């Protein structure tokens, strides 16, 4: 089972391709083909999922028994509606007459909201005569757990019932082994023809020349214990709510414009994608990690997303902190890799989680979520001076610091190490969590417990920031202790991890303190944490930007000269936009602006070749080829929270904003702009109780105006 879990990210099947359309809204997402259908030929992963269960496994539209022909489809940027244009093939009628191809326009509009899938189908005839049309919709539901879809085999499943059909609804249900009845209810506002026990609906239209007709329906996804909410059940009621809802969430972020239209489009697309991943929780908004495989709360992903956007949207960081604090481990539970004070790695829903077939109901197998939590709390306070929030979170911060020293340092050498305890847990527990991602220079896998280089940087930053918090909380002795501990860690880390021959920090130390002498992007993230001594920042940056690490589209996760390098792998040679953005920010903080802009430019250039300019979870690490874009990684999540948040991080790396929330003042410390930008404008950037409009021009520098 462990090998199955740890290798899910590298399933050797093309589940998704460039003919996929993806809709997502919080706990629900859909993977459809470009015609808006879900068919067996589309791919194994296609379907509509809710709370980690695939409720709809097939959905097909036909006209007079024939599949329409695709004209085109696209996701509308402003409100995440999938808009599809179709037309009829040549149709032979019962009376022997024909409707020539291209005489009927069929437009489908689909969206998700609050546990519902909505669709409107519009028909318009351009024929000279009346066209009798039978429109048919067929549905199927397998209620597979998402981990089954991802490849885990199960010995037993629950009972899938026969559909219950009347003349306005189709109900498909599944009685799970976890005792939960899951239901997909298809509802139409008008009566339809149906076949007994066949989940299909048929509608007859007489299309007059030049006239149109339409049909809409919804599918509700529900677990038996849930109460029906008051959300509209019809397309016509739900559709007008989209834009106001988007505007309310969008208000968390300032408006960002630039002189480069394509760069601005990338920023706007990224903001809309991030908004689509923000789930409502009792503690506020939380960014789900990514669609399709990680459409749930991950600690590491949420924390890094919050760090990337903190300068622009501090309220999101506050919500993330409270969400994770509410789920902080309070006792040791080896089956969940949990210990007191540890911060969540992942939480899941679904039947397999409920039955403990996978350990992810609330799973804590992450070595870095806990220091990242402390680090974010400290940076949030620097950004906002929100003492009330820190006072509320201070017991959680103290517990996290206790976990770092008591549980995270397994052998007492001052470094944070991991070795999984859960039988079905993750073998590697840093952000590169593939089973083969940590290795020696000869390619042999490293022996645990493992101390990753970037994790020590997170601990350093966490203790530095926690020292400030301790001072604010009236605990000067703890503040001094944390400062001293951070300083000692910085010295010992450089001594043990810096490799003079590589001019780079090694990837990790194994359980015997043997070094994994591998050049990796992990070392670049150390610049982001500040643990790198000033005199070593430039040599490290130079190493990272050599051709074996820098492909032209960003930094490879490991050097092309390393033993396990494979540009098509998940963690051993691919490129992750969030990783690149963190390294760029780190370079900028060390004053390495030219190097930072090189990474910023690589991400922007990659976006120009990608659908919707949406940076995915990762792409392949092949060398940049003239006139070609980056090579896709076939099962990458898109959108992915920390990948789209990279666009915010690169703006921070360029502008280098400084905040004094106590005084309500703002400074911009940019060192020029990349060649393709003449101007950046940020409107409504909040500092304390004030808000600012910022304009940075290449020829004149910053202009800051209080609103």
The rounded Rg comes to 27 Å
User: What low-confidence regions span 5 or more consecutive residues with pLDDT below 50?
Assistant: 1-18
| CATH architecture call of the largest domain | Alpha/alpha barrel
Structural class, from helix and strand content? alpha+beta
Number of strands: 35
- CATH level 1 class label of the largest domain: Mainly Alpha
Approximately how much beta-strand content do the residues carry? 15-25%
Number of helices: 18
- The average pLDDT value, as a whole number, equals 93
N→C terminal distance: 57 Å
Q: Write down the overall geometry.
A: globular
Protein name: Amylo-alpha-1,6-glucosidase
Domain Mannosylglycerate hydrolase MGH1-like glycoside hydrolase: 305-604
InterPro entries: 6-hairpin_glycosidase_sf, 6hp_glycosidase-like_sf, GDE_N_bis, MGH1-like_GH
Pfam family, one: GDE_N_bis
What does this structure look like?
InterPro entries: 6-hairpin_glycosidase_sf, 6hp_glycosidase-like_sf, GDE_N_bis, MGH1-like_GH. This is Amylo-alpha-1,6-glucosidase. The protein is an alpha+beta fold. The protein folds into two domains: 2-245, Glycoside hydrolase, family 65, N-terminal domain (Beta-galactosidase, Chain A, domain 5), CATH 2.70.98; 252-697, Glycosyltransferase. The chain is 29% helix and 25% strand. It has 18 helices and 35 strands. The strands form ten sheets. Strands 6, 7, 10, 11, 14, 15, 16, 17 and 20 form a nine-stranded antiparallel β-sheet that branches. Strands 1-2-3-4-13 form a five-stranded antiparallel β-sheet. Strand 34 (690-697) and strand 35 (701-706) form a beta hairpin. The longest helix has 22 residues, at 387-408. The protein is globular and about 85 Å long. The model is unreliable at 1-18 (pLDDT under 50).
């Amino acid at each position: 089972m462990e090998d199955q879990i740890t290798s899910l990210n590298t399933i050797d099947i093309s589940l998704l391709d460039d003919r996929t359309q993806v809709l997502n809204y919080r706990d629900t997402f859909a993977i459809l083909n470009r015609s808006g259908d879900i068919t067996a030929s589309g791919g194994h992963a296609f379907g509509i999922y809710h709370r980690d269960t695939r409720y709809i496994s097939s959905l097909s539209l036909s006209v007079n028994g024939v599949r329409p022909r695709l004209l085109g489809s696209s996701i509308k940027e402003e409100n995440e509606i999938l808009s599809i244009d179709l037309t009829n093939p040549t149709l032979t009628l019962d009376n022997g007459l024909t409707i020539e191809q291209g005489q009927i326009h069929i437009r489908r509009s689909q969206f998700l909201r609050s546990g519902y899938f909505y669709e409107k189908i519009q028909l318009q005839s351009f024929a000279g005569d009346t066209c009798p049309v039978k429109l048919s919709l067929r549905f199927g539901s397998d209620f597979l757990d998402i981990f089954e879809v991802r490849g885990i085999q199960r010995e037993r499943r629950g009972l899938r019932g026969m559909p219950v059909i009347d003349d306005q609804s189709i109900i498909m249900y599944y009685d799970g082994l976890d005792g939960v009845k899951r239901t997909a209810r298809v509802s139409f506002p008008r009566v339809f023809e149906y076949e007994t026990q066949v989940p299909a609906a048929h509608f007859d239209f007489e299309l007059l020349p030049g006239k149109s007709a339409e049909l809409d329906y919804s599918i509700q996804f529900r677990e038996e214990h849930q109460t029906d909410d008051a959300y509209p059940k019809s397309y016509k009621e739900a559709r007008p709510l989209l834009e106001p809802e988007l505007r309310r969430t969008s208000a968390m972020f300032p408006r960002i414009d630039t002189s480069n239209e394509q760069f601005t489009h990338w920023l706007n697309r990224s903001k809309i994608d991030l908004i689509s991943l923000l789930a409502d929780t009792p503690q506020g908004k939380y960014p789900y990690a990514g669609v399709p495989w990680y459409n749930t709360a991950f600690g590491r992903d949420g924390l890094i997303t919050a760090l990337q956007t903190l300068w622009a949207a501090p309220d999101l960081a506050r919500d993330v902190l409270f969400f994770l604090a509410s789920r902080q481990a309070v006792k040791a539970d080896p089956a969940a890799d949990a210990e007191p004070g540890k911060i969540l790695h992942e939480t899941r829903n679904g039947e397999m989680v409920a039955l403990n077939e996978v350990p992810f109901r609330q799973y804590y197998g992450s070595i870095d979520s806990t220091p990242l939590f402390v680090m974010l709390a400290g940076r949030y306070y620097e950004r906002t001076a929100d003492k009330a929030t820190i006072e509320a979170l201070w017991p959680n911060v103290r517990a996290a610091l206790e976990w770092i020293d008591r549980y995270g340092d397994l052998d007492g050498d001052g470094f944070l190490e991991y070795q999984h305890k859960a039988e079905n847990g993750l073998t590697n527990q840093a952000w590169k969590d593939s089973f083969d991602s940590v290795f020696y220079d000869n390619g042999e896998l490293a022996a645990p417990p493992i101390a990753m280089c970037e994790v020590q940087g997170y601990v350093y930053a966490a203790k530095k920031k926690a020292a400030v918090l301790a001072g604010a909380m009236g605990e000067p002795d703890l503040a001094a202790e944390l400062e001293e501990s951070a300083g000692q860690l910085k010295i010992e880390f450089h001594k043990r991890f810096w490799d003079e021959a590589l001019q780079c920090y090694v990837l990790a130390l194994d359980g015997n303190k043997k070094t994994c002498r591998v050049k990796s992007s992990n070392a670049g993230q150390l610049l982001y944490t500040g643990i790198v001594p000033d005199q070593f920042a430039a040599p490290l940056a130079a190493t990272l930007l050599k051709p074996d690490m820098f492909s032209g589209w960003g930094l490879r996760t490991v050097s092309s000269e390393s033993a396990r390098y494979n540009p098509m792998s998940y963690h051993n040679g691919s490129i992750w936009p969030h990783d690149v953005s963190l390294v760029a920010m780190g370079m900028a903080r060390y004053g390495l602006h030219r190097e930072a802009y090189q990474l910023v430019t690589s991400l922007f250039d990659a976006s120009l070749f990608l659908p919707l300019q949406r940076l995915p979870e990762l792409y392949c690490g092949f060398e940049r080829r003239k006139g070609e874009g980056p090579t896709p990684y076939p099962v990458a999540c898109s959108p992915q929270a920390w990948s789209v948040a990279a666009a915010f991080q690169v703006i921070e790396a360029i502008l280098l904003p400084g905040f004094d929330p106590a005084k309500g003042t703002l400074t911009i410390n940019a060192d020029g702009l990349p060649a393709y930008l003449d101007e950046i404008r940020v409107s409504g950037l909040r500092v304390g109780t004030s808000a600012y409009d910022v304009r940075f021009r290449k020829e004149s520098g910053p202009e800051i105006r209080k609103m």
